[in-house]
Amino acid sequence: MNASPSTDRAEPTSDVVLDLAGLQSLLDVLHARGFTVIGPTVRDGAIVNAPITSVGDLPRGWGDAQEPGSYRIRRRGDDLLFGFTAGPQSWKAELFPARVPLWSADRTGEGLTVQVPDPRPPAYAFLGVRACDLRAITIQDAILAERVPDADYVRRREPAFVVALTCSDPAATCFCVSMGSGPVPGPGFDLALTELLDDDGHRFVVRAGTDRGAEVLDAVPATAAAPGDTDAAREVGEMAASRMVRSMETDGLRDLLYRNVEHPRWDDVADRCLSCTNCTMVCPTCFCTSVEEVSDLRGDHVEQHRVWESCFTAEHSHLPGGSVRPATRSRYRQWMTHKLASWQDQFGMSGCVGCGRCIAWCPVGIDITEEAAAIRATDGVRGGAAP
Question: pTM of the full predicted structure?
Answer without folding.
Answer: 0.91
